[in-house]
Design brief:
The complex is a heterodimer of chains A (about 280) and B (about 300). By secondary structure, chain A is an all-alpha fold. Chain A is built from twelve helices and no strands. Chain B has about 300 residues and is mainly α. Chain B folds into two domains: about 45 residues, no CATH class; about 220 residues, Orthogonal Bundle (MetI-like fold), CATH 1.10.3720.10. Chain B has a two-stranded antiparallel sheet with strand order 1-2. In chain B, a hairpin with a 2-residue loop joins β1 and β2. The longest helix of chain B has about 35 residues. Classes of the chains: A mainly alpha (about 280), B mainly alpha (about 300).
Chain lengths: ~280, ~300
């Protein structure tokens, strides 16, 4: 193979070796803080850091018995479910005209819809704070946080579904139409099943992003707490093993959801292909 | 691009699914128009009312006045004048630009050799898994990724405990925390996945035979990289720069948690203004950042259109 030729030379091998070492260091850099956090959450010492004086799961027990954490968890999940519903519906619906219609200024609209991902969340949070408090005279609540988070999560769903729609053979739909299917039936039996993997992935991403969202929520949540907000208020007083345990649980939840977002959609795809 | 449809009678130059609306071919009524655009309505409400309008509001606020905690609709540039009349604010503004620049440069310098290694030396079947491992931290909580560094850098953190335990120091050193270097380190950590992903995406498409051809014709590896590789992956590099630099400009949490008084960035100023109910001054500070972002996006618009970092 041609690719192997430049590895044969001594210089090529050296470069390759040096770059491999670099890559290993990069992975250490990326995972060391997270791994340490999890290790400290099982550490018996009450300072939440080194030295490791023994292993315990008692911090996890405290997490589960803390009523503040339980409150925050309920709020977090409620918000995440609502954000997922809003962004999945809005994002999926918007993907159709974005991909299919002869929209004027299509690339401009595309950029405007992706902008919430790019601009700092701080600006979204601050500007919505002004809108809700000074214009709508609304009390801040989990609902205002849902709206703020949805602005940020919807573009992710939109991009995923639009990508799927782009590679979608429109003649399938035309065939269904020729066979007498009306708009609803075409949507129900042809389009949605084919888009399902992308919609599911989008929903899982939206849920995860909402679960972990911090800065927009900080401005819009009012007197309630989500888990990230709760952790933030605790971190101000220093590192505690309980927060390490809670953080590890939240990390595990995110990783599980993201793994699902990568694994489940192709599985559905396979099923659709078979049936 | 849409797949070519198989409808007869449609000029080949037109994508078939655009030329032929679904439903009744050949007839475009207002209802088909409605069907085509109705999906936009919820997005229009969400992005219009809750994204564009608030941003417009911030623009207005930055030109209005606060009198006795009430916002008066009186147009003025006083908020900006005030911002630039306080030396701490001005230096914070420049420090923010500087920190963003340094963190972006460092992120790219670390990410490029990594992406190069991944695209060139790793067998194709493992590339995807290794890439997912890099992106994985990005999908975990942003707050926790910053927090996790406290357990390493903090006065009670891993480094200090280790130094103390090994006898190198007798009391905790706060050198690692509460200053700009700590902020930059954590920012590099946070935004590395963005840079690695975009750089890999463009390196992956590069045809390494061109590289070898250049070297066969006598180019040194350095020349080949500079003259052959770099020009071809330039859009990828620009995208990486944009996607790292812009979010960092608005950073709040990282300087707040690991920066201390010496690591303050403009995001912290904005939050302080808003928490102190100085909405108009906060709006002006926010707009300075937003303006910078708009300028950057306008300048680099073309390369952003070429490259789509989310792979759509």
């Amino acid at each position: 193979m041609a690719r192997d030729l430049d590895i044969v030379s001594r210089r090529g091998r050296l470069t390759r070796g040096a770059l491999s070492v670099w890559a290993v260091l990069v992975y250490v850099f990326l995972f060391a803080p997270i791994v340490l956090l999890v290790v400290f959450s099982f550490n018996a010492n009450r300072y939440g850091t080194f030295p490791i004086t023994g292993w315990t799961t008692k911090w996890y027990g405290q997490v589960f018995h803390d009523y503040q954490i339980r409150d925050a968890l309920t709020t977090t999940i409620r918000i995440a479910l609502e954000v997922t519903a809003v962004s999945t519906i809005v994002g999926t619906a918007a993907a159709f005209p974005l991909v299919r219609s002869r929209l004027p200024f299509r690339s401009g609209i595309r950029i405007a819809m992706v902008l919430p991902i790019m601009i700092p969340g701080l600006l979204i949070g601050v500007s919505l704070l002004v809108l809700f408090t000074s214009v709508f005279h609304q009390t801040l609540s989990p609902t205002t946080a849902v709206i703020g988070q949805s602005v940020y999560t919807t573009p992710f769903v939109l991009l995923l579904v639009a990508a799927r729609l782009q590679g979608f053979d429109a003649s399938l739909e035309r065939a269904a139409s020729d066979l007498g299917a009306n708009t609803f039936n075409r949507l129900r039996y042809v389009v949605l099943p084919l888009l399902a993997p992308a919609i599911l992935a989008g929903a899982l991403f939206a849920f995860t992003l909402s679960l972990d969202e911090f800065i927009i929520t900080l401005f819009l949540i009012g007197s309630h707490n989500t888990l990230p907000i709760y952790i933030y208020t605790q971190v101000k007083f220093g590192i505690t093993p309980e927060v390490n345990a809670l953080a590890s649980l939240l990390l595990a939840a995110s990783v599980t959801l993201i793994a699902a977002a990568f694994v489940l959609p192709p599985a559905i795809d396979h099923q659709v292909g078979e049936s | 691009m849409a797949l070519p449809g198989s409808s007869p009678g449609v000029p080949a130059t037109q994508p078939a699914d655009v030329a032929l609306p679904l439903g009744r071919p050949g007839r475009r009524t207002w209802s088909s128009w409605l069907g085509e655009y109705a999906g936009f309505a919820p997005a229009l409400v969400l992005f219009g009312v809750f994204f564009l309008v608030p941003l417009g509001l911030i623009v207005c606020y930055s030109f209005w006045q606060t009198v006795d905690y009430n916002v008066v609709h009186h147009w003025t540039v006083d908020n900006y004048r005030y911002f630039f009349s306080v030396p701490t604010y001005v230096s914070t503004f420049w420090a923010t630009v500087w920190v963003s620049f340094a963190a972006t440069a460092l992120t790219l310098v670390i990410a490029f050799p990594f992406a190069y290694w991944l695209a060139r030396y790793v067998p194709k079947q493992y590339q995807k898994v290794l890439l997912v491992l890099v992106i994985l931290p990005f999908w975990t909580s942003y707050l926790l990724r910053v927090y996790s560094w406290l357990t390493i850098l903090g006065p009670e953190g891993a480094i200090n405990r280790f130094l103390h335990w090994s006898g190198a120091t007798s009391k905790p050193v706060s050198f690692f925390l509460y200053d700009r270097p700590a902020v930059i380190l954590v920012l590099v950590y946070l935004y590395f996945p963005f840079a690695a992903l975009t750089l890999y995406a463009s390196l992956e498409r590069f045809d390494w035979n061109q590289f070898r051809a250049a070297m066969d014709l006598g180019a040194t590896p350095g020349t080949a990289m500079w003259r052959i590789l770099l020009p071809q992956i330039r859009p990828g590099i620009t995208t990486a720069v944009i996607f790292v630099f812009i979010p960092i400009l608005g950073e709040y949490l990282t300087p707040q948690l690991v920066g201390g008084a010496k690591g303050v960035m403009i995001g912290n100023l904005i939050v302080n203004f808003f928490q102190g109910a100085q909405y108009t001054r906060g709006a002006a500070a926010a707009l300075l950042i937003a303006g910078l972002i708009v300028v950057l996006l306008a300048v680099f618009r073309r390369s952003l259109e070429v490259e789509d970092p989310y792979g759509t």
